[in-house]
User: What shape does this take?
Amino acid sequence: MQKVYTDIIQIAGDVIVVEAEGVGYLDIAEISTRRGTSLAQVIRIDSKKISLQVFAGSRGISTGDKVRFLGHPMRISTGDNLLGRIFNGSGLPLDRGPALSENLTDIGSPAVNPVKRVVPNKMIRTGIPMIDIFNSLVESQKLPIFSIAGQPYNELLARIAIQAEVDIIILGGMGLKYDDYLFFKENLNAHGALSRCIFFIHTASDPTVECLLVPDISLAVAEDFALKGKRVLVLLTDMTNFADSLKEISITMEQVPSNRGYPGDLYSQLAARYEKAVDFEGAGSITILAATTMPGDDVTHPVPDNTGYITEGQFYLKNKVIEPFGSLSRLKQQVNGKTRQDHRAIMDTMIQLFANYRETLEKQSMGFQMSDWDKKLLKYGSLFEEKMMSLKVNIPLEEGLDLGWKILAECFTPEETGIKLSIIEKFWAR
Assistant: This one.
């Protein structure tokens, strides 16, 4: 029998403290007030003192209200009925559709046992040359998109959602502006991708606590689909807002702050979400792409700094392009040797020549006289930026490789590229 408690001894922000027994960590409770019922989640147990964060905020709650613990963590409905639907951070409909209560699964469950994981070995094509050719996205990979405010990381995520060769897209929005939410909804709908998408949206005007639920809800639903054999891509934006919500709650609970005021368990909190990326043996997979804004473009900020220790590389979005020298996919070698024979040659050669182009730009800015080789590099760099780096470019991998050969042939002789003769003889004519 579920016990009802009326011993609310403290209310601080969106956190209330109750005296109770037999309660589990992350269990859900119902708070009955004069205005209705609110849900809350256990976030700390200190003997009989139970701290709960209230999803809709603590406004209207008094110390005489009743708290009933449900005896289980928060649950979310799963299954095909979610496809094409839009929900808030608590899993309630935002699209005027019916609330769902079937096929419930717990959120925040542990990551998958490594024994059940498959070594990542399948590429996810996106139609974006700077990803497909130079930093291939691998199924079950976890990658952040490091950026700064004002960069088009939401536009990049939307484009990946439309073009990625996966079965299901789950978008978890945290602290989104309402315009950004509408952008995702209208853009994916216009391109016919909404039917394979599920949205869990927390906007900047929603309660802070709901922001913390979005990654867990998104990943719980993704895991259910993956176990049924689906290739799921989870897109999260923005994990810095998630970390800021953690900081706000920890300050409310008067925890001792760590670096720049973030809680000391920031690494563990981030890792618990990112480690959900998995390729199940005999089933589907979960791949995670998470936008992470860097205040002041500072990669040593606690959020990107901790993220870099967890994930398998990063995409670095700068000046509205994916920067080749800040980006890295540590798993790309698992797949780009299986795509086409010339993939690695094109990848390595074009990046090396682009590095030479950047050095030539520095020489030019300092007034050095340009040699014939420098002029070739300047032409090459301009073509590379226009036809490869621009996020407007949308071509399949094979066409991108052919375009790479075309750019090289337009600027250099075969010998100047340094590519193996056997590869040159087979692909240069392209």
